[in-house]
Amino acid sequence: MEQSTLIRRGVGLRGVDPHKVSPGYTLFAHLTSPGTVKLIDNHGQEVHRWDMPYRPGRHAQLLKNGNLAYNGVHPEAPRLFPLWQKYRGGVMMEVDPSGNVVREHRDPLAHHDQHHLDNGELLYTTVEGIEPEKATSVLGGIPGSEAPDGKVYGDCIKHISPSGELLWHWKAIDHLDPKKFALQPHYPREHWPLINSVYPLKDGNILASLRSTSAVIIISKETGDVIWHLDSTVVAQQHCASELDNGDILIFDNGTFRHHESATYSRIIQVKREDKSIAWQYKDPHPMTFFTPFMGGAQRLKNGNTLVTEAAFGRIFEVTEKNEIVWEYINPDFADYKGLDAKEIEEYFDYPANALFRAYKYAPEEIPWLHPN
What we know:
This is PQQ enzyme repeat protein. It comes from Lophiotrema nucula. This protein is mainly β. It has a domain at about 110-295: Lipocalin. The protein contains five helices and 26 strands. The model has no long low-confidence stretch (mean pLDDT about 95). The longest helix has 5 residues, at about 5-10. Strand 11 and strand 12 form a beta hairpin. The strands form six sheets. A five-stranded antiparallel β-sheet has the order 1-25-24-23-22, with no helix packed on it.
C-alpha cells in the first residue's frame, strides 16, 4: 500500500471548473528538484519546462518580455546556520524560453524573495551579521540560539540596477524598533526578523513581510522608516504580501501561533491600507484542511480569482471572489534533499516532499512564445 499520505490522496489535476477558472498557465519550481521549473495548463498538462543549473532558491516568475526570472541556490555561499540551507538563494537569473541566460546577478547572502523588476532591476532580501553590541537589542527568540558563529544575522533589502549597481540599501537593525519587532518565543535568534517577501509599491515605497515577528510593513524608500505596520494581532507567520490594483494588500496568512486560537489553519486576506480592516478573505469551510506552517503564495488574477499555493504540500488551487474552488493541482513530483548539497537539513527534512515556495499564473497573451501562431 502507498505509504505517502499525499500521494495516496491523489496528485496532479484534482479538478477544474472550465467555466469559472481563469484562462492561462501556472508556473512553479519544485523545491527539492535539481532546478526544475514547469509551466502547466488548466488540464494539469506540462506545456513547457526549464531545467536550471541550480536548485530553486526559492521560486520563478515570468517577466513581461516573456523570459523566465529564476532564483537559484548559490553554489559557494557561506553556510551560516543549518536552516539557511533551506531558504537561501543567491543566483538571480533571467533566461529565455530555451534556457539561454540573458543576465545574472549573484549575492551569496540573498534569501527568500528575490524580486525581478521588468526593467531589469532587482529588489531582494539579504542578510549580514549584526555587530555584537547591537545584537543584544534584538529581543525574544530562544535564549542562546544564535548562529554557530555566535552572531545574529539581520535582514537587509537591496535594490540593484541591471548592471549590478547598488541603488538603495536598507538594514532592519537601523530602522526597526526591537521592542515592536521582537522575535516570537519559539524562533531561534540566528536570523531576525526573517523577511520572506519584498514588493515594490506603486507609490515607490517597499512592502515587506517579516515572518519571525509576524508583521507586514511598508518602508519609506526615502527615509527607511516604517510608515505602516500590520502586527501579530492580524497575521501569523505570514508570507507573500503584494499590492492589488486598488491599493489593498493581499497576504498569505499561514496561521501558526495565531493570537487567541489553538487550532491552526491558513487563510488569504485582503487588507485595506487606510484602516487595516479585512476586505476579503478565503479559508477552507473546514478550516484545518487548508494549512501550511511555512511558505505559501497568493496571486490575484485578472478575472478576480485568486491563485493560492499551499506550499508545504505542493498544492495549488484557484478560488473565486465567492470562495469557490475552481481549479486544484497537486505537484506529483516528490524528492528529498539528498544530493542537493544541503547536508545540514537532510535529517531534519528526511522525507520525499513535493513542496513549492510560490506559484504564479499567466494569461495566454502574457506568453506569446508558447503558441506563436
